[in-house]
Specification:
Length: 463
């Protein structure tokens, strides 16, 4: 941190954070600031009315803390940790939400030469020099896994577009969903939201629905596959003479299962019931492009030759197993009831390295019920993660600075019995606090030192 940079403290529900310098990025809702902890950034909303509803944001924080803090998952290691979950909420003195704390996007998701996030803009445009089809397919497969997890939590992202999905090829192809603090529940359907040019659901454009919903997320996923896998010229599907254009640049020799998903996802876009769910994309891609536990480079190279793309490099990464499909909505509530997904791909051939074991990120769906049967119960959500509230003395110690160290030092010298009792209370309260909370470790260490000194003075007095 340079001497010219200013710092300020913000207090969240789960800890305090030191915000450094000026905003490093700004959008229509808020601005992003660095903190002294490189793992986190602070998003400050332009005004409290720009903040998400408190109950929605808290639900996201609960999931984010469970995945990233309680489970300690590394960013990008699984679908659920490939989402930029908020992990804390910051309020003003009046209790209004003014910001949230988010994970800092890892360096590997930044463009190698440009000073910006490596979004899928650089994957879907030919002039940006996208990688070979194998790598494009795996990045998009990861994107489908992420949206499958979002759907399993009955959430709507609502703004899936080229700027809100980052990707990388190192150490292996991966995707990362960003701008996630505004995600909302699927039920009731959203009534407001934002849209990005060329990534807006035609149902919103034609005012069939007031805002993008989870079917809109599925439309944008199909659009990402169309643009990112096939690299069509233009790639837009505009409305011409009152009719929405269908995808017209699908190669004749593209596997019919993939072509079928693209046509279902993008043709007749005013009928959301035909759109493939993210989990269906995952299982179909695994069936089509994975043979014996390895990616079918020949089939993907054939696709690149048909598109006139350069020859791909050898593939050295191992595929992940497909994400289990999420529960289907009860019959009659939403259109789009579908048959069960196809079986998973065959096991790797003898002698080949199998994929690493991964437990499913969410529970398998309940069995499908016949028409007009009672709706199956929804899976029980994971227990809400909440840490015990910190005591007032622990908060005093964790704030640190001269307000803590000077009084405790003077009491240790002049009133060591009082200092000892105070240090013991502080220690007991602080040990109950989340170990990731800022200031916890210095408070534990300093109170332990004071307690030891006071104990030594007491023994010396008694001799």
């Amino acid at each position: 941190m340079s001497p010219a940079q200013t710092t300020r403290r913000v207090r969240g529900t789960h800890g305090d954070y030191t915000v450094v310098g000026e905003a490093i990025n700004a959008g229509g809702v808020g601005s992003i600031f660095r903190t002294t902890d490189p793992k986190w950034v602070y998003k400050e909303y332009h005004s409290p009315d720009k903040a998400p509803p408190a109950e929605h944001l808290q639900r996201l924080v609960d999931i984010g803390r469970d995945v990233l803090i309680r489970q300690g998952q590394e960013i990008g290691s699984r679908p659920e940790s490939s989402i930029n979950w908020p992990v804390d909420v910051v309020r003003d003195a009046g209790g209004r939400i003014v910001g949230c704390v988010l994970p800092a996007i890892p360096d590997r998701y930044f463009h190698p030469t440009l000073n910006c996030v490596n979004t899928i803009e650089f994957l879907v445009m030919r002039r940006s020099g996208p990688p070979a089809a194998t790598y494009r397919m795996v990045v998009l497969l990861r994107m489908a896994e992420i949206l499958a997890f979002v759907h399993s939590k009955r959430l709507v992202h609502g703004d899936v577009n080229a700027k809100n999905v980052a990707w990388t090829l190192r150490p292996e192809p991966a995707a990362y969903l960003i701008d996630c603090d505004g995600m909302v529940p699927q039920d009731p359907p959203p009534t407001s939201g934002v849209q990005a040019n060329y990534w807006t659901d035609p149902r919103v454009v034609d005012r069939v629905v007031p805002a993008q919903d989870h079917y809109s997320d599925w439309y944008c996923l199909a659009l990402a596959f169309y643009r990112g896998l096939l690299l069509p010229a233009g790639g837009n599907l505009p409305k011409v003479n009152g009719t929405w254009a269908a995808p017209s640049q699908i190669p004749d020799d593209l596997d019919p299962r993939i072509a079928g998903l693209l046509r279902r996802g993008l043709t007749d876009p005013l009928d959301p019931s035909r759109r493939p769910e993210p989990a269906e994309w995952v299982t179909t891609l695994m069936q089509v492009y994975i043979v014996g536990g390895k990616y079918d480079d020949a089939a993907l190279a054939k696709l690149d030759r048909a598109l006139g793309m350069p020859k791909p490099d050898p593939v050295t990464f191992t595929p992940l197993p497909p994400t289990p499909p999420p529960p289907s909505p009860p019959p009659g509530v939403r259109p789009g009831t579908r048959p069960p997904p196809p079986p998973p791909p065959p096991s790797p051939a003898p002698g080949m390295r199998p994929p690493p074991p991964r437990t499913p990120p969410f529970a398998p769906p309940p069995p499908r019920m016949p028409p007009f049967a009672p709706a199956p119960p929804r899976p029980v959500p994971p227990p809400r993660y909440s840490e015990p509230p910190a005591g007032r003395l622990a908060l005093w110690a964790m704030d640190g600075g001269i307000r803590w160290y000077l009084p405790i030092a003077l009491m240790t010298i002049c009133l060591f019995p009082v200092a000892g009792i105070l240090a013991l209370i502080v220690l007991l309260q602080t040990l109950k606090v989340d170990q990731h909370r800022p200031g916890r470790t210095p408070a534990v260490v300093s109170s332990s030192v004071v307690l030891a000194i006071c104990a030594a003075e007491l023994l010396s007095t008694l001799r």
